[in-house]
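re: that complex we talked abt at group meeting.

here r the seqs, copy pasted straight from the sheet so there may be weird spacing, ignore it
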Amino acid sequence: MDKFVEKELNGWGRYRGSRSHIYRPEKVNGIAAAIRSGKESSYIGRGLGRSYGDAALNQDGGVVLTERINRFLSFEPNTGVVSCEAGVTLEEILKVLVPRGWFLPVTPGTKFVTMGGAVACDVHGKNHHRDGSLSNFVLDLKLLLADGQQIRASRDENSDLFWATVGGMGLTGMILSVTLKLRRIETAFIRVNYQRTRNLDETMRLLEEEDQDYTYSVAWVDGLAVGGSLGRSILIRGNHATVDDLSPQQATQPLEFAHRRTWTVPPQVPNFVLDRFSVRAFNSLYYRRFRQHPVNSIIDYDRFFYPLDSLREWNRLYGKRGFIQYQCVFPPDTSRAALVEVLSRLSKGKIPLCLVVLKRFGAETGLLSFPMPGYTLALDMPMLGTPLLSVLQELDQWVIRQGGRVYLAKDACLSAEAFKEMYPRFGQWQRMKTEMDPQNLFSSDLSRRLQITGVDD
Amino acid sequence: MKQVLILGATSSIARAIASEFARKSVNLFLGGRDLAELEHMAADLEIRHGIQAHYGSVDAEDFAAHKDFLEKATRTLGEIDGVVFAIGYLGDQPRDSADPAAALKIMNINLNAAISLLAPIANILEEQGHGFIMGLSSVAGDRARASNYVYGTAKGGLNLYLDGLRNRLDRHGVKVITLKLGFVDTEMTYGMRGLFLVASPEQVARSACQTLRKPSGTYYIPPFWRMIMLVIRLIPDSVFKRLNL
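got the structure back, here u go
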């Protein structure tokens, strides 16, 4: 099928947007037909459009939606190996397979992403310190290459292509299907421990000393706390609950729970809803909700992993201006100094840090994958224009000096030079790209901005 | 109801209808041209709904092969409780109105394939005294428009054929449902301009399956198309031939 709709698309942050020709194939052959039609100079795949910046945008080019390429292809109930097409969402995998005792091995903070997108961004989750990123559980991929060939890639077969594709931002080819090893669970619940910390040192100390006790571990940081309270946090850590952990009522159907009611944010939200004062008030209330001593509770996986998913279209909360999520990682030896610098610089500025999340990372994976050992910090802030952009540029330089990097799935602002310094294995990736796709048939606004594929003009 | 045959199963509307049946634990036999797609679809239905989904290759225009296909499908399913005819082809009116071969292709796929595939099943259902035939047709069959009359003629013929089956089979306990679909958000209509009140395949599938609890007859999906088409049919020829529709 080679029919398209011309439309403006946005990244999730609603700051980057561009007009493109949107294709929506319904059959696997339709993807190939769209790409081989020669109608566009380039194409990029797009799942649910949850990357924050311009990763799934392609100005004046083709954007191929995978929303109707969404079939489960196989499932082994004994081993938890599932194979599905690129457009299957994490929500669907959970809905179908949690009742059978299997869970995603790695999940980001939203279930509204597709498998194709998750692999292309090599997403990580609250268990990265233990289990690494999603690609660690990807057994096999099927890719449509620029020359029209469909090939498999795994650790054993076309392994160079495999390591270039996980985290490769959809630029090595269209991911058609993914085979994934799931995690066995006894219940749909998480045994969570909430613990309040007074400052950054305590936060880091507890994460380092106790992370091995938790499959999932993350710190919600009060981004507007300053001075001696800088980096004060709520540690949110948990393990999959066993049947013995559940109340008698929950234990009767341990893999079921009552789903939350969802709300939808209206399209027009004024900017003051998330400004410095409202965010300060919220952070302070949230921080005080928890006492000094740890609190344990049993909550379903939906509340634990996806608190924002019950608020549909929450990106509208930032109003018309949109927002930026800046997520960076620092190696272990420079982490503390770097975190102090970033948090104090941003809390001193007039930037309302709406959501600040800190977590420890484990090992590196794909050539362009974001995670590396150390600390990752994710910061949500309204798009305040040039002043914010210049602060972020300074931050980029700071991150580079510390040997860290910025997450491409979130990024909307990085420069081509900064990108190359942050991703030292880009040269290796680029050799692969040149070999597989010399014409840059797979390109995006992000790949041109970062000069991954040619120069943006 | 335990087993249903879906003809033209890989279209997005047929896929959505198959999901509706599978959700109710109905085993399926999927017929279509693209075996790779059918394989994906069958696997998906089995994994999501725990049913048995079989599939086989059928080409609407290859009439000679229909008998073997139907034998295979009925043998695999054992008993057959119903059939959904979802084969359809819109074509390209400027070409189809000028080229007789292209026009005949439209007739073959939309109308003659229905006759060829449904006649043997009608006999089986009549004999067993229960079951249903559901045909996916279009509001385009209600009146032949200058811009779409070849397709409209085929769908109009399909409507009459299904009417006939209904009048023959109703007394034998076999339901015949004609679904006249308005605009649906599918590959067929994607990127077309000037569409309005477009329904999703899932909405159509839900309404389609609900008609199985209603009497044998013709149903518009979504229902407001009945009113729209009533108005369109009431326009006198003297006026209609001057309209740009």
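couple things i noticed - Chain A is about 25% helix and 25% strand. Chain A has a mean pLDDT of 94.
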